[in-house]
């Protein structure tokens, strides 16, 4: 993959913004509410698909190496055993989907649809991962309803708000970038 210095700068910027978003954290059970999804969606809206994915891969890679940039100021390879790690994997897919789906439709409804699909993809990846870690690795025995409550229902209002902000900023910033 050939990458220009401009693209590399934007990849680095969105990796850093995602890390900063992790530090704004409200603990609500095994998965905290953070601002990360706002920056994942913005990366998708403003970068090419490969660059958007790379920004999230770099963020995850730096955290897995041991820098405490995940929510709760954590990091290291042991993070793959946290219930929230599946959502981090979802960041990569979500950034690609937001980028691909918003490329040809930069209207507010187009960005909203792209962002909604991207956000749903985070849930599709994160919730089963969370259920696996909680119920099979940690042997917690949570019901399906409890898993959905902890990983989906509590997050819907905040994610909707972050989606609206990302759509607005994505529309405004795409003219500049």
Short description:
The protein is mainly α and 177 residues long. It has helices at residues 5-23, 36-46, 49-65, 85-102, 108-137, 144-153, 156-176; strands at 25-26, 33-34.
Beta percentage is under 5%
Q: Which outline best applies?
A: globular
Order of helices and strands: HEEHHHHHH
Average of the residue pLDDT scores? 95
Structural write-up:
The protein is mainly α. It has a single domain (5-170), classed as Orthogonal Bundle (Arp2/3 complex 21 kDa subunit ARPC3), CATH 1.10.1760. The chain has helices spanning 5-23, 36-46, 49-65, 85-102, 108-137, 144-153, 156-176, and strands spanning 25-26, 33-34. A hairpin with a 6-residue loop joins β1 (25-26) and β2. α1 packs across α3 and α5 crosses α7. It is globular and about 50 Å long. The relative contact order is 0.15.
Give the secondary structure arrangement, pairings included.
Blueprint: H1 5-23, E1 25-26, E2 33-34, H2 36-46, H3 49-65, H4 85-102, H5 108-137, H6 144-153, H7 156-176
Provide key terms for this protein.
177 residues; mainly alpha; Arp2/3 complex 21 kDa subunit ARPC3; two-stranded antiparallel sheet; 7 helices; 2% strand
């Amino acid at each position: 993959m050939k990458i220009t210095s401009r693209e590399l700068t934007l990849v680095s910027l969105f990796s850093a913004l995602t890390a900063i978003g992790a530090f704004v954290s409200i603990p609500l059970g095994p998965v905290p509410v953070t601002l990360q999804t706002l920056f994942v969606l913005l990366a998708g809206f403003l970068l090419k698909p490969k660059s958007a994915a790379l920004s999230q891969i770099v963020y995850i890679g730096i955290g897995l190496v041991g820098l405490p940039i995940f929510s709760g100021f954590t990091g290291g390879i042991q993070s793959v055993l946290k219930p929230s790690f599946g959502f981090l994997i979802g960041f990569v897919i979500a950034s690609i989907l937001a980028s691909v789906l918003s490329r040809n439709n930069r209207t507010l409804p187009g960005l909203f649809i792209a962002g909604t699909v991207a956000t749903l993809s985070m849930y599709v990846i994160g919730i089963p991962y969370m259920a696996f870690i909680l119920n099979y690795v940690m042997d917690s025995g949570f019901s399906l309803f409890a898993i959905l409550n902890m990983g989906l229902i509590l997050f819907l209002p905040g994610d909707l708000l972050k989606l609206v902000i990302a759509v607005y900023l994505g529309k405004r910033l795409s003219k500049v970038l």
